[in-house]
Write a structure and sequence with these properties.
globular; alpha+beta; 3 strands; three-stranded antiparallel beta sheet
């Protein structure tokens, strides 16, 4: 849809690599209800520049791909920084909220196309387990 509506200006949309190269702090979230709330799908999209539903389609402006570590940072510390809460959350450190998800696989080690298939095994909020598979 973006290509149809924005035309050549799409080159500047979601320009994650260009923004990082310009030393910009990325803060990821969701475009829900336009897109899913699922951050694993968002990480996949940032890393592959592809939609899960269209695995055989070429990456959209592949020069804007970023690494898994950079995408995770944008969803965690970057989002906390954007809200002025990086001293409270966004990373695991003494004195910060212990908000964590445990996945069934290491998304830093698997092929990027497998990231959306990772499943949450446990969720910890404020140091308390609130979900366990």
């Amino acid at each position: 849809m973006a290509d149809r509506l924005w035309g050549e200006r799409c080159r500047y949309a979601y320009a994650w690599r260009s923004l990082l190269d310009a030393r910009t702090a990325l803060a990821f979230g969701s475009d829900c209800p336009v897109e899913t709330l699922d951050p694993l799908r968002g990480i996949h999209a940032a890393v592959t520049r592809k939609r899960v539903e269209e695995p055989d389609v070429d990456s959209w402006y592949p020069q804007e791909c970023i690494g898994v570590q950079q995408a995770v940072r944008a969803y965690t510390l970057g989002a906390a920084y954007a809200s002025g809460e990086e001293g409270l959350k966004g990373s695991l450190a003494t004195g910060k909220l212990a908000d964590v998800v445990v996945l069934d696989r290491d998304i830093f080690q698997i092929p990027p196309d497998e990231i959306p298939r990772a499943e949450v095994e446990m969720t910890v909020l404020g140091g308390q387990v609130v979900f366990r598979r």
